[in-house]
Design brief:
Blueprint: E1 8-12, E2 19-20, E3 22-23, E4 34-35, H1 37-50, E5 63-78, E6 86-100, E7 106-120, H2 125-148
Parallel strand pairs: 1-5, 3-5
Antiparallel strand pairs: 2-4, 5-6, 6-7
Helix pairs in contact: 1-2
């Protein structure tokens, strides 16, 4: 009986999506933010795969291999003072999904997850890193949602 929990997902080339955030403003421009998308995705993939039945090793589930191609984050901040600064953060993750169906057929599908959020980050540059992490997590969840729907 086929599993109804969705395909098993694995990652390939995860580090290809790791990148440095592009800060397009005077606010915290010297603050270099690394966005380790691969670490976040590895944890999320492990969580997604746990939602399947633990005894589901008989090959009755489709498998999806996500080959990460690249990632990017653009952060734009504007404001008259640190505390009144409004930022817009856009995270994109590009991947190719190779789907191996239960019948053995294979399909390659390009996937793009993009999330853009607007918000205030307060007067500390460290808040921008946390803000970027939140938006990146949303994009990663969207990418995995797309992969599970295949």
């Amino acid at each position: 009986m086929p599993s109804t929990t969705g395909p098993a997902i694995s990652l390939s080339g995860a580090a290809a999506a790791d990148h440095r955030v592009i800060v397009a403003s005077n606010y915290c421009q010297a603050y270099h933010i690394e966005n380790p998308v691969s670490l976040l995705l590895q944890n999320l993939v492990a969580d997604v795969n746990l939602t399947g039945t633990q005894s589901d090793t008989s090959g009755d589930r489709a498998t999806v291999t996500l080959r990460l191609i690249s990632g990017s984050t653009v952060l734009r901040c504007m404001g008259k003072s640190d505390l009144a600064t409004m930022c817009k953060n856009r995270v994109k993750i590009f991947a190719e999904a190779s789907v191996t169906h239960v019948d053995g057929s294979v399909a390659a599908v390009p996937l793009v997850a993009q999330v853009e959020r607007e918000g205030r980050v307060g007067g500390f540059c460290g808040n921008i890193a946390r803000y970027t992490g939140i938006v990146t997590r949303e994009a990663a969840i969207d990418l995995l949602r797309q992969a599970r729907a295949l």
